[in-house]
Design brief:
This protein has 465 residues and is α/β, with parallel strands linked by helices. Helices cover 33% and strands 24% of the residues. The chain binds flavin-adenine dinucleotide. One of its GO terms (molecular function) is FAD binding.
């Protein structure tokens, strides 16, 4: 039971006010009701996010319902005509044919996740932050250390410090908490030769171009463009030449590299969100030189997809102020908690974005961990038990999804052994449906596994609660 008049049973510091950190603060407060003191430390001066779209997986929307935010999230999401069984998965095309591509397949499903802008999602989370939770801005955590009494001292870039009983690293892919966690961990727990492997993020060799623009822009230029009708994946292999200097090619050399583009409608169908991948697996694991995120010209973006079908060329012509992201991930960690510290979201398992699942996984971490911390049975003297349950329940699930996401990226670029390799006309002419073709079977298998995983990890959690 909550005891709002009593002193909080312990203090939790959440490092990072991103999607995971905000969801965690909301979950703890909803179920603990003042029993736990929450401080959020955010390095920026506001709660904000990149101007881009996001898809929130169905299973994460169930959590939004539990946290009392579903109606608002649904309200800002893109609506599609409802029917019992409509092709609501993305239309997947083979597009690396300059005269025109073709439909590869389309998944048929009863219900998809929700599509929205990241800012709309973050604004809703921000509005639901409990008044009792204190957010400290301009607090970039640099490191932490354990104190003899068991509490944790937090150190920030502005030379200030704070103390807490429990520290949650929700500070994203370049997590300072993860770095200190592995650099200071008992060497008996982790192979010491792998500390840097766990502490640092890993470049996948992929670059992502992202842009958003009003749907009318494309409607005027190309009224029948397939993108205006819903989510589309344009798959293929592209030609990249020396002018795409970020791949460090010798002058005049042209290479064929895997590429694909995801596009979908956000902001209630008024904006088109474009996410375009260019991948060089030979670069995977090498250090990425330069800024991980930078503004680029539209020409660079267009050039990378010069051999793609006209629908893609028109789509890219409309892109305003594209940015380029070097796609990094976190290597699979052997553990996500130690003593009174735990990692959630991208700090723990930043993954490729092919499945559109990273934010959903951060929300799931937050929900499970938040409920465990808030539980009446959890006290400061057994907090490590609650944190260990969080690890047991969540880490392998998130890592499984990260692997599925990586595999999906290979599939979209015709690079998965045993699947369609893009050399013939694949499933053209067939009505895409569940069970069609190796690629679809693989995708559906992934989806079934996701559902099984949810059931598996929810069972012990809910029997405990
Ligand atoms: C191109 C692309 C597309 C994507 N599309 C989707 C999608 O459609 N669906 C989906 O579910 N996921 C998607 N993702 C993944 C998703 O964006 C992330 O998984 C999600 O944002 C992770 O949330 P987080 O809260 O863990 O981390 P973040 O969102 O990175 O938040 C971390 C927060 O911590 C703060 N911070 C960082 N360091 C410190 C520090 N040292 N001290 C204090 N504060 C700090 C940051 O300022 C930030 O506010 C995509 C990712 C990419 C790259």
């Amino acid at each position: 039971m909550s005891s709002s008049s009593a002193a909080p049973k312990f203090r939790v510091a959440i490092c990072g006010a991103g999607i995971g950190g905000l969801a965690l603060a909301i979950a703890i407060e909803k179920f603990a009701q003042h029993d736990v003191q929450i401080n959020v430390y955010e390095s920026r001066d506001d709660i904000t996010t990149a101007g881009a779209g996001i898809s929130i997986a169905l299973r994460a929307t169930e959590i939004m319902r539990e946290l009392g935010m579903y109606e608002e999230i649904f309200g800002v999401s893109t609506k599609f005509p409802s029917s019992d069984l409509v092709p609501s998965g993305p239309l997947v095309r083979k597009s690396d044919i300059s005269e025109g591509g073709f439909k590869w397949f389309q998944r048929i499903t009863k219900q998809e996740g929700l599509l929205m802008t990241r800012q709309d999602l973050v604004d809703i989370l921000k509005q639901h932050l409990p008044a009792s939770c204190t957010v400290h801005f301009n607090k970039h955590l640099t490191t932490y250390n354990k104190q003899p009494a068991g509490s944790i001292a937090l150190h920030f870039a502005d030379d200030s410090a704070a103390t807490t009983d429990v520290l949650i690293g929700a500070d994203g892919i370049r997590s300072s908490v993860r770095k200190t966690f592995f650099e200071t961990i008992d060497r008996g727990l982790v192979n010491s030769s792998k500390i840097a492997h766990y502490a640092n993020a890993y470049w996948t060799g992929s670059l992502i171009y992202r842009a958003m623009f009003p749907v009318e822009k494309l409607s005027k230029m190309d009224p029948n463009n397939v993108v205006s009708k819903g989510s589309v994946l344009f798959c293929g292999k592209g030609k990249v030449n020396c002018r795409n200097h970020w791949f460090y090619l010798p002058p005049n050399e042209v290479i064929i590299i895997p590429q694909h583009i995801t596009s979908y409608l956000v902001s209630q169908g008024t904006l088109i969100n474009v996410v375009a991948y260019v991948s060089d697996k030979q670069k995977a694991g090498t250090p990425f030189e330069g800024h991980w995120v930078s503004d680029v010209s539209r020409e660079e973006f267009e050039e990378a997809f010069q051999n793609f079908e006209p629908a893609v060329k028109n789509l890219l012509k409309c892109c305003e102020n594209p940015t380029r992201w070097a796609l990094h991930v976190v290597n699979e960690l052997p553990l996500s908690t130690c003593d009174r510290v735990a990692l959630i979201g991208d700090a723990c398992h930043a993954m490729t974005s092919h499945l559109g699942a990273g934010a959903g996984q951060a929300i799931e971490d937050a929900f499970v961990l938040g409920r465990l911390l808030a539980h009446p049975l959890t006290r400061l003297d057994n907090i490590h038990v609650a944190l260990k349950i969080y690890q047991d329940v969540r880490l392998s699930v998130a890592q499984f999804i990260a692997r599925e996401s990586e595999d999906l990226g290979y599939m979209y670029e015709f690079n998965t052994p045993g699947y369609y390799d893009g050399t013939d006309r694949g499933n053209e002419g067939e009505e895409g449906s569940e069970g069609d073709g190796g690629a679809i079977a693989g995708w559906l298998k992934a989806e079934r596994k996701l559902q099984e995983s949810v059931t598996l990890y929810n069972a012990p959690l809910f029997s405990l609660l």
